Amino acid sequence: MSMPFYVSPEQVMQDKAEYARKGIARGRSIIILEYDLGIALMAENPSVSLSKIGEIYDRVAFAGVGKFSEFDQLRKVGVRYADVKGYAYSREDVRGKALANAYSQTMGDAFTREMKPLEVELVVAEIGDTRFVGHEENSIYKVQFDGSISDHKGFCVIGGETEDLQSNLEANYESGLPLGDAMKLGRSTLQLASNGDDQLEVKNLEVAILDSQRTGRKFHRLSAEEVRGILEP
Amino acid sequence: MLVRGRYLGSSFSELLELEHPQLRISWSDALAKSQQFPEVPHGTTVLAAKYADGVLVAGDRLATEGYRVASRDVQKVYNTDSHSLIAIAGAAGPCIEMARLLGIELEHYEKIEGETLELEGKANKLSQMIRQNLPAAMQGLVVVPLFAGYDKSRKTGRLWKFDITGGRYEEAEYQATGSGGLYANESLKKSHRNDMTRDDAVKMAVQALTDAADEDRGTGGIDLMRGIFPTLNVCSETGIETVDAAEVERCYREILDAGSRS
User: Are the beta carbons of A83 and B104 separated by less than 8 Å?
Assistant: First the structure.
């Protein structure tokens, strides 16, 4: 009988993490920014049909980087989770925190159990609603390939090479920016990514907002004309 | 579509059926177990009519149980998405549930697929939901709604009526249904034109509901004492607008003034 080679658990985890990081690093970054009346999600994305940003529920949005098939599957799982929960309970019971935790469980499980980890990093953003007590605050959760979860105030960057982007936002971001200024900052920050385009054209930008001024479903995907109207008036 | 035991399609009702059967209500199973048929709220007039820019959908507010008032301000017109509406007639419980489920179904499809269904596709989905309810309908829990909306591909308003078997009939001009539907239809017949303005369509609908409430005891009239007015929603290319109560009241007072014999 042949004996399998012994590989230490540390080595296995390290290899898996390295594999996942490599996959994620190939993707372009996404920036999530709070502005005075909502949350903006911005991605460099030349495709108009394969989106990286999506609507989950009334106040919850999704953004994913890495392997498209994997994060899009996670987005759909999130939509199913949210719609069933909202149907069984009430629309206000669908919260970003619970969804981010569910993602963290799923991705953590996949990381330890499966041969191949998910090459995905994602954000769950939830806009507050001042009409309901306990629902006032915005929240932004980042979930990584191994299931580790973190929450962010103001802004958040996901993708392969985030250090330059992160430090640019730390230096230039102020809370309470109007949408136009937030989007300009978002675009100039995305241009810093070494694997991205340094002259980012409007048609290659995917932008969606969670807009506190809307009633019901707060998610709105900006059309290329709307983005152009804001960035190049 | 099931892959490794997980549902991967884009229909919310199928998702419920396959993965969350405990959340699915089967009225017919429940009825088969009960000896006696329960009394459920009935009685309605709802209508839908085309006008120049789209469609108008309206409904009274009364729910009755036999000869008793069950509720004076029940809602019978629901927006199922940004450009479609359902007006319910029949047993209140299953009707309201179906309107809610259709709304979630359309939103779910839109989020999963990234695009909206055609208006005809939405009407067809509703037709399937009514067909599934047929066993319960045979025992009295009838759901016969009207469905209407603005067809963005064809740039026109459209409307459908349904029968209890899920039969789907597109109407070219207008349709009213419910216990007072006959009277409302008679009233609409006199004044309806497909090219009428929004304001004229609103007046016509208030008149038709007033006529129906006058003849049918199951239809609620305008209740000035309690400030309860029928629901009127108009749907055009720009979306759905709810006609405010002040405008409905103004139309009603014009009708009163014109008809007063003193």
Answer: yes
Please report the pLDDT score of residue B37 as a whole number: 59
Q: Which residues of A41-58 are buried (b: 16+ CB within 10 A; e: fewer)?
A: bbbbbeeeeebbbbbbbb
Structure tokens at A6: 């012994």
Query: Number of folded domains in chain B?
Result: 1
Chain A residues in contact with B8 by the CB 8 A cut-off are 76
Enclosing domain of residue B248? 7-21+40-261
Residue B191 falls inside a structural domain: yes
Report field, pTM of the whole predicted structure over 0.80: yes
Does residue B2 form part of some domain? no
A27-231: CATH superfamily: Aminohydrolase, N-terminal nucleophile (Ntn) domain (3.60.20.10)
ipTM for the assembly: 0.91
Q: How much is the mean pLDDT over chain A?
A: 93
Contact B196, B204 (CB under 8 A): yes
Using CA coordinates, name the residue in chain A closest to B6.
Answer: A77
Helices (H), B55-118: 92-113
For A67, phi and psi rounded to 5 degrees? -80, 120
Chain A partners within 8 Å of B104 (Cβ): 83, 86-87
